[in-house]
C-alpha cells in the first residue's frame, strides 16, 4: 500500500463523510448509503495498488462510489424486471410449501423465457443479469465490444420482460378456465 495515503483506516476516516454524503444524496436512503459506503471502501482496499495517480485519491474514491451505486441500481432494476424469479433465495425444504412452489414456477418461467431468446441475448442476460459480470468482463468473455454488450443486454431484457409477461397472462387465463 502506498505510503502517501497511509493505510485503509486513514483513507476511511479522511473520506468517509464525502463518500457517505454522496451516496446518501444518490440513494436518499441511510441504510443503502451505509451499505454502499462499506462496499466502496472494500473496493478501495482491493484496488488501492491499482490507483494510477491520474486524479486525486479523493476523486478516485468518489468514482468508485459512483460506480458502486450505479451497479447497485442496475442490479435492483434487473431484479424488478424479473418479478420474483431472482429475488427468492433457495427455500428450506421445511419452508412454506406455497413459497417453494412459487419459486419453482418462477424459475421455470425464467428458464423458458431464456430459451426463447436467441443465443447472443441469452448469453448476455446470463452473464450480466444472473452472474452479475461487469460490462467489461462480459465483453471479454463473449469477445464483443462493450457497446454491443450494452445494446444486446438492453434488447434482451426487453424481450425477456415481454416473454415473462406473456407467460404470466397465459397462466392467468389457465387459472380462469380452471376455476370455471
From TrEMBL:
Pfam families: Sigma70_r2, Sigma70_r4_2. Residues 11-77 form the RNA polymerase sigma-70 region domain. GO terms for biological process: DNA-templated transcription initiation. Keywords: DNA-binding, Sigma factor, Transcription, Transcription regulation. Transmembrane segments: none annotated. Signal peptide: none annotated. Residues 108-159 form the RNA polymerase sigma factor 70 region 4 type domain. Coiled coil: none annotated. GO terms for molecular function: DNA binding; sigma factor activity. InterPro entries: RNA_pol_sigma-70-like, RNA_pol_sigma-70_dom, RNA_pol_sigma70_r2, RNA_pol_sigma70_r4_t2, RNA_pol_sigma_r2, RNA_pol_sigma_r3/r4-like, WH-like_DNA-bd_sf. Belongs to the sigma-70 factor family. ECF subfamily. This is Sigma-70 family RNA polymerase sigma factor.
Amino acid at each position: 500500500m502506498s505510503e502517501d495515503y497511509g493505510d485503509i483506516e486513514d483513507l476511511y476516516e479522511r473520506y468517509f463523510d464525502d463518500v457517505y454524503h454522496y451516496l446518501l444524496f444518490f440513494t436518499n436512503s441511510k441504510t443503502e448509503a451505509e451499505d454502499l459506503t462499506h462496499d466502496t471502501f472494500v473496493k478501495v482496499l482491493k484496488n488501492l495498488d491499482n490507483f494510477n495517480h491520474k486524479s486525486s485519491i479523493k476523486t478516485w474514491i468518489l468514482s468508485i462510489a459512483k460506480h458502486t451505486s450505479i451497479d447497485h441500481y442496475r442490479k435492483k432494476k434487473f431484479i424488478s424486471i424479473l418479478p420474483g424469479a431472482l429475488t427468492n433465495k433457495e427455500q428450506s425444504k421445511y419452508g412454506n410449501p406455497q413459497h417453494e412452489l412459487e419459486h419453482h414456477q418462477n424459475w421455470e418461467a425464467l428458464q423458458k423465457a431464456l430459451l426463447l431468446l436467441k443465443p447472443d441475448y441469452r448469453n448476455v442476460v446470463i452473464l450480466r443479469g444472473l452472474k452479475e459480470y461487469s460490462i467489461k468482463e462480459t465483453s471479454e468473455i463473449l469477445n464483443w465490444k462493450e457497446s454491443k454488450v450494452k445494446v444486446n443486454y438492453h434488447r434482451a431484457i426487453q424481450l425477456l420482460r415481454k416473454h415473462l409477461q406473456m407467460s404470466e397472462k397465459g397462466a392467468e387465463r389457465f387459472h380462469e378456465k380452471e376455476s370455471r
